[in-house]
Specification:
There is one protein chain. It contains 11 helices and 11 strands. With 298 residues, the protein is of the alpha/beta class. It has one domain: Alpha-Beta Barrel (TIM Barrel). α1 packs across α2 and α1 packs parallel to α10. The radius of gyration is 18 Å and the shape is globular.
Length: 298
């Protein structure tokens, strides 16, 4: 496994997006023991970064479902977990009718952080990420609330998710020099729209965490080689999977990029973790970029 810098941490170049065992487009979830087995498989493959969120749950009554799975998986794994970094997110609310809202107030975020601390069974959250902007609030005020929680010692590092370049800049200004350690946006061959944010993060030394890096649950990840044939073609030449080629290409976009592919099965995350060791040629990387509409020199 290769490693990359994530704020104060050194983590595996490929992380685990734990969401699919608790929330996905299919609405099909593994049994709890199987979900824990998937997390164990990630750890055994060398993954040292796990991403979760309080909102990742089958319904509103089970908020924290995914955090609890991550906690129990770490507690029951036979290996050393000292170097495992767990990131969670907050700021999205969930109503009884299944609809979602946003709340970036200090009162709500403090309550959400305290619940996440209990769910994860920790005294301090390694990385706390603001999940989605609350458009009823000034973004800088929300960042000040995150800064307060960091200063209180409830979280060690702060990140943001689903953010524009302007919002990243605001977060940097409020959190201070080096205070913003990561940005987690959707980025994949199907959704390359966050390339500006990816590029800006590289210039600023901020980790960029692509979510749904293979195209998401519900078939996007499974069919990425069919939708973008170049990844399947290159994969055949390396005796690898199209998904591994996608992740290797994303890793090539900068040393600050840490994809967090989701998984429901142990085989999926084991396959993804191997992408860290896949070296593609400059020509192959250029073909990948061109296939998704990104024209650049590799």
């Amino acid at each position: 496994m290769k490693y990359r810098t994530l704020g104060p941490y050194t983590v595996s170049a490929i992380g685990l997006g734990a969401m699919p065992v608790s929330m996905n487009r299919d609405g099909v979830f593994p049994e709890r023991d199987a979900a824990i087995e998937m997390v164990h498989a990630a750890l055994e493959a060398g993954v040292t970064f796990i991403d979760t969120a309080d909102i990742y749950a089958p319904d509103h009554e089970e908020m924290g479902h995914n955090e609890l799975i991550v906690r129990d998986a770490l507690a029951s794994w036979g290996g050393n977990t000292d170097d495992i970094v767990v990131a969670t997110k907050g700021g999205i609310t969930r109503r009884e009718d299944g609809s979602k809202g946003r709340d970036g107030s200090l009162e709500y975020l403090r309550s959400a952080v305290e619940k996440s601390l209990r769910n994860l069974g920790v005294d301090t959250i390694d990385l706390y990420q603001y999940h989605r902007p609350d458009r009823w609030m000034v973004y800088g005020d929300i960042m000040q609330n995150l800064k307060t929680l960091r200063d209180e010692g409830k979280v060690r590092a702060v990140g943001i998710s689903n953010a524009s370049v302007e919002e990243i800049e605001i977060a940097q200004q409020v959190l201070g020099d080096g205070g913003l350690v990561s940005v987690q946006n959707e980025f994949s061959p199907k959704h390359p729209g966050s390339f500006d944010e990816l590029t800006y993060c590289g210039e600023q030394g901020v980790a960029f965490l692509p979510w749904s890096p293979l195209g998401g649950t519900g078939g996007g990840a499974r069919d990425v080689g069919e939708r973008f044939a170049v990844f399947a073609d290159i994969a055949r030449g390396h005796d690898m999977s199209p998904q591994q080629v996608v992740l290797a290409w994303e890793l090539s976009l900068g040393d600050h990029v840490i994809p967090i592919p989701g998984a429901r099965r142990p085989q999926s995350i084991t396959d993804s973790a191997k992408a860290a060791d896949l070296a593609l040629t400059a020509d192959e990387l250029s073909r990948c970029s061109a296939a998704v509409g990104l024209h650049m020199e590799q």
